[in-house]
Amino acid sequence: MFGPSRSAPATWAFKALAATLALSGLASYNTVAAADICNGHPELCSRSYSNVTYIGAHNSYSVAQGSLAANQNYDVTTQLNNGIRMLQNQGHDNNGAIHLCHSSCLLLDAGTITDYLGKVKSWMDANPNEVVTILWVNQGSIPVARWAEAYQATGLDALSYVPASYPVAYSAWPTLNELITSGKRLVSFMDYQADYSSCPYILDHFTHFWENPYDQTDDSFPCTIDRGTADTPMYMINHYLDKNMTFFGSVIPVPDTSSLEQTNSESGQGSVGLSADQCAAQHGQYPTYILVDYYDVGGGSVFAVAADLNGVTYQEKAMGNGTILAAPSANGTTNGTRTGSTISTTTGAAMSGNIVNTLLLPLSLVAAGIVALA
Questions:
Q1: How far apart are CA 323 and CA 39, in angstroms?
Q2: Nearest to 195 by CA among 138, 132, 143
Q3: Residue 23 burial (C-beta neighbours within 10 Å; 0-12, 13-18, 19+)
Q4: 195 has a pLDDT exceeding 60
Q5: Which sequence positions are flagged as catalytic?
Q6: Structural domains of the chain in order of their starting residue, each with its CATH number
Q7: Of 227, 290, 292, 298, which is the most exposed, with the fewest CB atoms less than 10 Å away?
Q8: Does the structure show a pLDDT above 60 at 166?
Q9: First to last CA, the chain
Q10: Confidence band of 374 (pLDDT split at 50, 70, 90)
Q11: Which DSSP symbol is given to 103?
């Protein structure tokens, strides 16, 4: 294992030596010419998938102006355009269809996973040199075959990586170039109900990587193993800060938007950069995934951290697209737009001003203490 230095690309090269040259089930490897640039950097093409750090959007679908249930400012297409390469989502059964909902579809319903995956497919078709990861939180333990239907409906099954053997050992992951040239550029995981025998392209989360505690209200962000085991060298850090709010006697965690600038910053107490360093010191390698709220706050600082960990030069770009989608309605549609690129000075006030409207429908759920905004 290498040391926790973030400045020397050689530390990553040491890890890369362990990566196998086997194609790991990528049968169509030679159908496309080798990629010159992989996930934005030529240096990453020869790295194994397990040897790269990716920034993830916590609750990628959860875009709702002024809502306590929101975690992002921009929709999935803009997230991907800005550099997000891991999309974490919650799926719930809603009248026989799988919807993207936050703890309850009464609280926030962002529509069906099929609609969401259709946007991912369109973006991946337009960006053939990019490897993307999806992590599903399977609320209600919905059979994986139903999730596979959405992949098939959108054509994402054809882009999905299927390992030749299962589980995939840390050193057996293909390189980014191999994933890209094979056309199998989407890697999917699910926390519960993954079944390799019936759906070989949705892999079990905890078999392949562990994660630290979530819903943290302390900016020390401990890097202890919360779910999963140390047997899996790949890991994800949940780097989003919450604060507890009390409604009708029930305490629920909500995003601490007032601290976002520091939480998403490159250095200092509570920063994503410091957390990555501390995790590397504790576990001997950097995180594979870093999950954040409102990734755009900080002007790209979370991506600068990932570039540093990967030993590549950060290519600065403007965050967002000038429009923030408004709160989805109960059927998953949106009802307006708001311009702007950060929420550090506006969202807190918007949340306070819209608490009644935001929580009116699910109030009984909150009072019962069964809503958790994780």
A1: 25
A2: 143
A3: middle
A4: yes
A5: 58, 102
A6: 10-367 (3.20.20.190)
A7: 227
A8: yes
A9: 32
A10: low
A11: S
